[in-house]
Amino acid sequence: MRRLTALCAATAGVALLLTGCGSSNSGDRTVTVTGTGKVQGTPDVLNADLGTEVSAADVSAAVDQANSQAKAITDAMVTAGAKREDVKTSDLSVQPTYGPDGHSITGYRATNSMHVAVRELPKASAILAAAVQAGGNDTRISSVAFGLEDNTKLLSDARARAFDDAKSRAQQYADLSGLKLKTVKTISENGSGTTPTPTPMYRDAVPGAAPNINLEPGQQTVTFEVTVAWDMG
Q1: What range defines the domain where residue 129 resides?
Q2: Who has the most CB within 10 Å: 18, 53, 152, 153?
Q3: Is 94 inside any structural domain?
Q4: Which residues are 118's β-sheet partners?
Q5: 226 closest CA partner among 185, 194, 189
Q6: CA–CA separation, 73 vs 67, rounded Å?
């Protein structure tokens, strides 16, 4: 009788141990997925990098001419509708130019570059056209791109879509596993990004003529990624 009692007690101990292990394994069942959310919005700013490049026989003359041209370009853009506080110098450089032998200095090339942010988009074409006309053939435009200065609302929408996408993926895995999706364990933001709208760049000007610069803002795409881990049971 005592032997039978001992055997029953031992069997009960094994059952309890297995139950505990089963409970622990169930708690370790997780699914981790990454969701992506994308939304589109209309750009609210145009950013342009432009300036002037001139050549002269000596350094002082090259720098003076570049500065004079840069001022003329800035004044023309402000007259066309840009805000002076939105125009800032981004680079000033002067380099020697060499003759055919590659050693003798024949003159100097100076550049004065600036960045302008145009927030009144209907004026953007006229502002760039004014810059090109003021600088003439010395005008250089290196980049023009529309952007989103305030993407708070779009980012919030993209984040919500990313989470919904992650949850949908996790639910599918839970269904395939014959389990139920339970509570969220961790959430990790992987970052966000905005796809810029490329625009044509106007580089060479016709002296005295105001060019017709066509700019299309298009749509900006805001992308957000989030990684979420769920318990399953």
Answers
A1: 45-147
A2: 53
A3: yes
A4: 46
A5: 189
A6: 10
